Amino acid sequence: MDILLLLGIAILAGLAGGLLLQRLGIPQVVGFILVGLLLGESVSGLLPHDLLLQLAPVSQVALGFIGFMVGAELKAEIFRKYGPKFIVILLWEGLLAATLVCAGVTWLTGQLYLGLLLGALASATAPAATVNVLWEYRSKGPLTTTVLAIVALDDGLGLLLYAFAVTVAQVLLGTSTAAVGWAVWLEPLREIFGSLLLGGGAALLVNQLLPRLRGDAEQTLCLLTGTILFVCGFAAWLELSQILANMALGVVLVNVLPQRLATVFDRVKDFTPPIYILFFIFIGARLDLALLPQLGLIGLIYLVGRTAGKMAGATMGGWLSHAPPTVTRYLGWALFSQAGVAIGLSLDIFHRFSALGPVGQQAGATVLNIIAATTVVVQILGPPSVKYAISKAGEIPPELRKGG
């Protein structure tokens, strides 16, 4: 099928699926993902994996815009007011999820290295589906603000835990040297700080160019769009995080040029829905239903441990940091989604440990299958849980509360 025809069908089918589920009181992003599942290799095969690889730039652009818009929500006054609370909550929800998964998997398998690897990946939260629900229901309030901050910071914490887990796992398998250990630690630090520097540097460049446009909104929109695409491409070339880099771009711009860019942010949000629809359809198309039977006890422990850790950790972190009651009670419900970072790191584990002999090969394959299979579950259950959280917190406008 012609690729443009296929993309047209995908967007229209995704829109229809999103509207149908929206009428049932379910976030539309679930409809996009389910349509993708129907179009993917698990069902119809219209979007096979080799075609998805060719269309990867669409997903990269979507992640760039999502990262930019998340960053644009994080104003300096928010971090001045809530910054310490965010850090306490982040550490509790991320570390408790990692600890429970690690303990459960180690108890079941007797393999601490496997527990450490899966525990580290359990800490990550996918921002895309979570943030899309917040935008769909135009939610505002302490919980929404906290969710945006936590999903923005979670990637960094996940990368650091991953570095620790891989280093210790290699020692336990008897394959690590000091040089390898340092290399594993330096890579996530390079990715985190390199991404922040790239996004921040691009923002400073925009700050220098913007006065030359003399307030023209359309030209400003073109400048921002071009910069986001530039940051996406440059981050991919340098093997940095596209979403972190564009978050940094959004954070710096919204704090340096808040008034000048206010209307442009709204315009960006207005023209990106087709890109987001394709992004979530591609996520659905990558889901492999055949993996579900492979979940087994390890997968169930991963799901239960991660869910319990996120919920209990968010509650404890909120309580210790004296966060608003709505944050303490409902934040955990908004942290279920898992995709990009966890899948990417599981692939890295698979490739890295496949070179460490039969035991390493088995560990890498187990991690990859568990993350892929659990992603099928949490990508479907995550968005309704976000809606439940913001609905119970009273942060959805009255006209959008149907089915809440």
Distance between the termini: 40 Å
Main sheet makeup: none
Radius of gyration: 21 Å
- Per DSSP, what share of the residues sits in E-state strands of 2 or more residues? under 5%
Strand and helix order: HHHHHHHHHHHHHHHHH
Report mean pLDDT, rounded to a whole number: 84
Q: What is the CATH C-level name?
A: Mainly Alpha
Number-wise, the strands total: 0
What count of structural domains?
1
Category by helix and strand content: mainly alpha
* Helical content class: over 70%
Helical run tally: 17
Shape: globular
CATH second-level architecture? Up-down Bundle
- In the predicted model, the low-confidence regions spanning at least 5 consecutive residues are none
Predict the CATH topology.
Na+/H+ antiporter like fold
Task: Present the secondary structure layout.
Elements: H1 3-23, H2 28-39, H3 49-54, H4 56-72, H5 76-109, H6 112-122, H7 127-136, H8 142-172, H9 178-209, H10 217-238, H11 242-256, H12 258-271, H13 273-286, H14 296-320, H15 325-330, H16 340-353, H17 357-392
Description:
- The chain has 404 residues and is mostly helical.
- The protein has a single domain, classed as Na+/H+ antiporter like fold (Up-down Bundle).
- The protein has helices at residues 3-23, 28-39, 49-54, 56-72, 76-109, 112-122, 127-136, 142-172, 178-209, 217-238, 242-256, 258-271, 273-286, 296-320, 325-330, 340-353, 357-392.
- Helix 10 (217-238) crosses helix 12.
- The longest helix has 36 residues, at 357-392.
- The chain is globular and about 65 Å long.
- It starts with a helix and ends in a 12-residue tail after the last helix.
- The relative contact order is 0.17.
- The mean pLDDT is 84.
